[in-house]
Amino acid sequence: MTVASFNRMETDITARVTAPRRDQNGEICALIRIVTSVKDLYFESDALGIVARENKPGEIWLYVPRGARRISVMHETLGIIRNYFYPEIVDKGTTYEMVLNTGEHTDKPVVEDNMQLLVMRPEPSNANIYIDDELMPVENGFFSATMKKGEHTYRVEAPMYQPDAGVVKLGDEQKIMNVVLKPKFGYMELFSLPEQGAKVYVDSVEVGSTPYRSDRMAARTYNVRVEKEMYFPIDTTLTVSAGQTESVTFQLISTIKPRVPWDVLIAAQANYHPSTLSYGGMVGFMKKWGFYVRFVSDFGSASTELECDDAGVLADGSGTPYYTGNTAKSRMSVTGGALYRLSKPLYLYVGAGYGSAVSAWETVDGRWAKNTDHSATGVAADLGGVLRLGKFAVTLGFHTVNLKHNEVAAGVGILF
User: Fold this and answer.
1) What are 45-100's pLDDT values in tens digits?
2) All domains of the chain, ordered by start, with CATH?
């Protein structure tokens, strides 16, 4: 089934004088006299509709309002003429003749060659299509119509897409067009670590929780907030670009202060005194505050029976014995105390404990006398610092026994 011809009947006064009809606005309709012997045809007009239909011998009369642009003709066996565009916009009170070829007669008129088929497939499929500034029907994702040859303007629009417009020229061949609109939207993907399930707010509106993927979002900048119990909230701005997915992973910081492990210091040390050199070690456990234990000894032995002063006079009043000139020394201290971090690489240590420093002289009769002027036993004290150098450390301090025997303590160590 095809349209053979469509003509304006200038001398036919049926529409305005003989058998006029008026539309709902009270205006005289145009009359389209469809020449066909098939009476069980169905007609579908544009948005203006069909005011009335009358079956006449050899014709079907359709009354349509002024400004009608197209019509579809349907039959159960003969097929469909979809969206046939009138070669001209119909005028009020005017009669037109449209001749159909239905295959019922061998003497059907020659099909006119001034019409051509236009098919347009938009993407997205729900886009609106305008031909010559008139909204066209889109069915099953495409628009098709038989239109007058020549140039026609078109415009394709859809929400959140950039419109596309231009001119289509219909000639001797059918025109099939695919119109793909560029998006004006993007997406947002949000994740959170070390835990998912954080609430997501976009422009102060709660939209979901991580892992979160948005629906279409207009291409622009948004205020985003991510929050979860026991973690500090994160506020930022994210820009969604057209056709892109903005993917961000947020590193959540816990509001619970993490447990800081102890740094363990093991250091080898030496204590210097003009009369003796002793060795030892230091073990410390360090945070902001910490503690330590020190041990120092010269690993010597000095067992005494007597005491004397620096002049050799015995403390028991028995006089001054003769000395062989042999001496013995014994040095030992055990201390412990606190460590405090003054700055990131520097620690202060201070502590106390017990210590002894014995200097003994041998008498000619084989006994030993402790020189009390050069010996000290009792309270020992430490004061010093630890300089941290990565995994290594240097120690330097002052050590005393009863504030009588004083030494400089230095060492090197390693941190675990």
Assistant:
1) 888 899 999 999 889 999 999 999 889 999 988 888 888 888 888 999 999 999 98
2) 2-101 (no CATH), 115-180 (2.60.40.1120), 185-251 (2.60.40.10), 263-415 (2.40.160.20)
Q: Which among 269, 285, 323, 328 has a CA at the least distance from the CA of 416? A: 285
Shortest CA distance to 51 belongs to which of 87, 22, 78, 18? 22
Given a contact cutoff of 8 angstroms between Cβ atoms, the answer to whether 196 and 190 are in contact is no
Q: Tell me the pairing of strands 30-35 and 95-101.
A: parallel
Residue 71 has which token pair? 């019509």
| E strand or H helix that includes residue 185 | strand 185-193
Q: Residue 14 has which token pair?
A: 């049926």
How far, rounded to the nearest angstrom, does the alpha carbon of residue 277 sit from its chain's CA centroid?
A: 64
Per the CB < 8 A criterion, the answer to whether 165 and 156 are in contact is yes
C-alpha distances out from residue 300 to 269, 295, 335, 355, 407, Å: 17, 14, 19, 14, 17
Select from 18, 27, 8, 38 the least CA-distant residue to 65. 27
Q: Is 378 helix (H, G, I), strand (E, B) or coil?
A: strand
Taking Cα atoms as reference points, which of 345, 350, 355 lies closest to residue 291?
A: 350
d(CA 7, CA 86): 9
Q: What is the pLDDT of residues 179-230, one digit of tens each?
A: 999 999 999 999 999 999 999 999 999 999 999 999 999 999 999 999 999 9
> Are residues 98 and 115 in contact, defined by beta-carbon separation less than 8 angstroms?
no
Distance from C-alpha of 186 to C-alpha of 136, rounded to nearest angstrom? 28
Gap between the Cα atoms of 415 and 123, Å rounded: 66
Question: In the β-sheet with 234-239, what is the strand arrangement from edge to edge?
Answer: 205-209, 199-202, 221-227, 234-239
Class of residue 34 by CB neighbours under 10 A (exposed 0-12, middle 13-18, buried 19+): buried
d(CA 212, CA 194): 15
pTM of the model: 0.46
Name the token pair of 269: 């040390």
CA proximity to 192, closest of 104, 117, 252: 252
Residue 123, Cβ neighbours under 10 Å: how many? 14
Asked if 380 and 354 count as a contact pair (C-beta separation under 8 A), the reply is yes
